[in-house]
């Protein structure tokens, strides 16, 4: 068999109608399964898992199934406009690529693949403080808008330094995460013996060897670490950086006064992530934030908190139009996006979905993730009987009685 014949045969196995395998992935659930096949179990569980017994993690997704549509028919929906307005500008879709740390552990260039994909579509990419690429590295490859995710750490000089770097990188907003005074136990990671950076041990060596492409990918280049701390923390690996964070930065004494000081320090948009109660939402608004992100950290912090989506109606009723409101957690389809917008969200943030895309196919994987959401958003708009997202409202859905504000 000639080389050209072999290439043609191989191409036919992985393409249909001119599309690659990754371009044919039909849903986010299928993207998750493709990601699972591409990386060792310990890496997949690191991304996929939650805190404790994963009660909150499961409800983040399943509670969307308790929300039902009230569609209208015989409405002209020949044109659909899925664009959204937030952060002072228009965006082609009501989705934000939210912060995720150390994505390089899944291979395929990690965060770089995601920021390039988001930029091509004009969507926000949120740089994580725990990114495996520095703020400056991300800025260098970014083609679209950037936000920066921050923690109120104990060392004010380090926090101020990160804020200055975010400003130099022209980030449009800071996303302050408030629900991580310390890291919760993630039982999957403990059972798997997961470490950062991943270590090949007798326990996981066989499985790692069955993923040679992943293994070669993560062992090439610089050591995996929190690159925003290079030159600040001793050492050059995620392990040394993690020890530095735990010993020097973890802050159990942060208060709303610290948020007020950050508001004075940062002139652009300020969003606060980790809001679940009306009391916290009102305190945040009174501190002058521009928006709240309804989130339980994807079920990765305090287990047995309520799902993010179940908290949204009461929070929207409490803050009204005093600030923007975003939903984070369990959003696995365009249907979920539309439900969130009907409940009053201005947009949603995605986490695991885009990381699965990176693990499944790098930049093209994230491209497909965004495509899936866009296709499903448009289809849901048509079937619901709306042509513009501004038409969505609470009358178009039926909520569980206990969610009512």
TrEMBL record:
The active site is at residue 297. Its cofactor is FMN. Belongs to the FMN-dependent alpha-hydroxy acid dehydrogenase family. This is Alpha-hydroxy-acid oxidizing protein. InterPro entries: Aldolase_TIM (IPR013785), Alpha-hydoxy_acid_DH_FMN (IPR012133), FMN-dep_DH (IPR000262), FMN_HAD (IPR037396), FMN_hydac_DH_AS (IPR008259). It holds the Pfam family FMN_dh. FMN binds at residues 99-101, 128, 149, 177, 273, 295, 328-332, 351-352. GO terms for molecular function: FMN binding; oxidoreductase activity, acting on CH-OH group of donors. Keywords: Flavoprotein, FMN, Oxidoreductase. Glyoxylate binds at residues 151, 186, 297, 300. It comes from the Bacteria. It comes from Atlantibacter subterraneus. Residues 20-402 form the FMN hydroxy acid dehydrogenase domain.
């Amino acid at each position: 068999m000639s080389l050209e014949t072999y290439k043609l045969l191989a191409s036919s196995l992985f393409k249909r109608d001119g599309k690659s395998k990754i371009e044919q992935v039909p849903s986010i659930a299928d993207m998750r399964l493709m990601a699972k096949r591409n990386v060792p179990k310990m890496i997949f569980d690191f991304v996929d898992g939650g805190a404790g017994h994963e009660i909150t993690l499961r409800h983040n997704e399943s509670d969307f199934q308790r929300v039902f549509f009230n569609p209208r028919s015989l409405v002209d929906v020949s044109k659909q406009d899925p664009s959204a307005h937030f952060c002072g500008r228009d965006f082609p879709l009501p989705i934000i690529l939210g912060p995720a740390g150390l994505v390089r552990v899944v291979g395929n260039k990690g965060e770089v693949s995601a920021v390039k994909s988001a930029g091509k579509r004009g969507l926000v990419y949120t740089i994580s403080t725990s990114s495996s690429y520095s703020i400056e590295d991300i800025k260098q490859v970014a083609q679209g808008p950037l936000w920066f995710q921050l923690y109120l750490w104990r060392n004010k000089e380090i926090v101020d330094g990160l804020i200055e770097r975010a400003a130099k990188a022209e980030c449009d907003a800071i996303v302050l995460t408030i629900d991580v005074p310390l890291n919760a136990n993630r039982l999957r990671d403990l059972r798997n013996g997961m470490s950062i950076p991943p270590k090949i041990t007798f326990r996981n060596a066989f499985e790692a060897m069955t993923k040679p492409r992943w293994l070669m990918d993560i062992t090439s280049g610089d050591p995996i670490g929190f690159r925003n701390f290079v030159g600040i923390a001793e050492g050059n690996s995620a392990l040394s950086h993690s020890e530095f964070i735990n010993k020097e930065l973890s802050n159990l004494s942060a208060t709303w006064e610290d948020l007020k000081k950050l508001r004075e320090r940062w002139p652009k948009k300020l969003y606060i992530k980790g809001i679940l109660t009306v009391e916290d939402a009102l305190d945040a608004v009174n501190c002058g934030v521009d928006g709240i992100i309804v989130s339980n950290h994807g079920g990765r912090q305090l287990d047995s908190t309520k799902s993010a989506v179940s908290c949204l109606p009461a929070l929207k009723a409490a803050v009204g139009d005093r600030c923007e409101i975003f939903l984070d957690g369990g959003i696995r389809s365009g249907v979920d996006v539309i439900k969130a917008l009907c409940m009053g969200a201005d947009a949603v943030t995605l986490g695991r979905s885009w990381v699965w895309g990176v693990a499944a196919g790098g930049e093209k994987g994230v491209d497909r993730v965004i495509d899936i959401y866009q296709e499903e958003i448009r289809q849901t708009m048509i079937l619901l009987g709306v042509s513009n997202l501004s038409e969505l409202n609470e009358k178009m859905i039926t909520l569980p009685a206990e969610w009512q504000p």
